[in-house]
Specification:
The complex is a heterodimer of chains A (about 110) and B (about 120).
Chain A lengths: L2 E4 L4 E4 L4 E8 L5 E7 L6 E7 L4 E4 L2 E6 L4 E6 L8 E8 L6 E3 L3 E6 L1
Parallel strand pairs in A: 2-11
Antiparallel strand pairs in A: 1-3, 3-8, 4-5, 4-9, 6-7, 7-8, 9-10, 9-11
Chain B lengths: L3 E4 L2 E4 L5 E7 L6 E7 L6 E7 L5 E2 L8 E7 L2 E6 L8 E8 L7 E3 L3 E5 L1
Parallel strand pairs in B: 2-11
Antiparallel strand pairs in B: 1-3, 3-8, 4-5, 4-9, 5-6, 7-8, 9-10, 9-11
Classes of the chains: A mainly beta (about 110), B mainly beta (about 120).
Chain lengths: ~110, ~120
């Protein structure tokens, strides 16, 4: 069966450190992968997109990697700040349609 | 940037009543909009894809007669939960794709529905 796995346990991290989140998938062949941030009681906000032929993407303090052999994406927040505390969702973009398959999200708590 | 609004942001209703949720793209046109439901600590579950000027496409297991979707214009899609029951209580979120290729999704702020 198809699965998208993100760590269900919250990641507690000290301010200034790098937070790393993992998104693993099974039985998907995504054309691209997106990461979103979701705050409690709010809709997700787009952060980054990485295509299957790209290894790494950066945006300010964010970095995403995509390994289609391992079927895994890593999401990094460098120099983390308390304002980065949120849930981060990975989403797989599938070939041939406009659909996105979302993971459950991984909560990050940055401790001042 | 593109903005999607939703109204209402929260609603409490009695069992058996119907509730309408509006989703608007404020500064861009959306021929397609997506409706999701999200339970606490769970992923976004796609309920249906609404298409401007035609019928919505529902995901397997989603009752068409219970969750009525209308996409009346290029900027407005509505979801009506008919004869709501407590098990329909959830967080409902709409989204619209942007113009980039592949498209990023612009999400509304969500509607918290509580059915008593």
């Amino acid at each position: 069966s198809q699965k998208i796995e993100q760590n269900s346990e919250a990641l507690n991290i000290q301010e200034g450190k790098t937070a790393t989140l993992t998104c693993n998938y099974t039985n998907y062949s995504p054309a691209y992968l997106q990461w979103y941030r979701q705050d409690p009681g709010r809709g997700p906000v787009f952060l980054l997109l990485i295509r299957e032929n790209e290894k790494e993407k950066r945006k300010e303090r964010l970095k995403v990697t995509f390994d289609t052999t391992l079927k895994q994406s890593l999401f990094h927040i460098t120099a983390s700040q308390p304002a980065d505390s949120a849930t981060y969702l990975c989403a797989l973009g599938l070939y041939g349609n406009n659909r996105l398959a979302f993971g459950k999200g991984n909560q990050v708590v940055v401790i001042p | 940037g593109a903005v999607v609004s939703q109204h209402p942001s929260w609603v409490i209703c009695k069992s058996g009543t119907s509730v309408k949720i509006e989703c608007r793209s404020l500064d861009f046109q959306a021929t397609t909009m997506f409706w999701y439901r999200q339970f606490p600590k769970q992923s976004l579950m796609l309920m249906a894809t609404s298409n401007e000027g035609s019928k919505a496409t529902y995901e397997q297991g989603v009752e068409k007669d219970k969750f009525l979707i209308n996409h009346a214009s290029l900027t407005l899609s509505t979801l009506t939960v008919t004869s709501a029951h407590p098990e329909d209580s959830s967080f409902y979120i709409c989204s619209a794709p942007g113009a980039s290729v592949p498209p990023r999704r612009y999400f509304g702020p969500g509607t918290r529905l509580t059915v008593l």
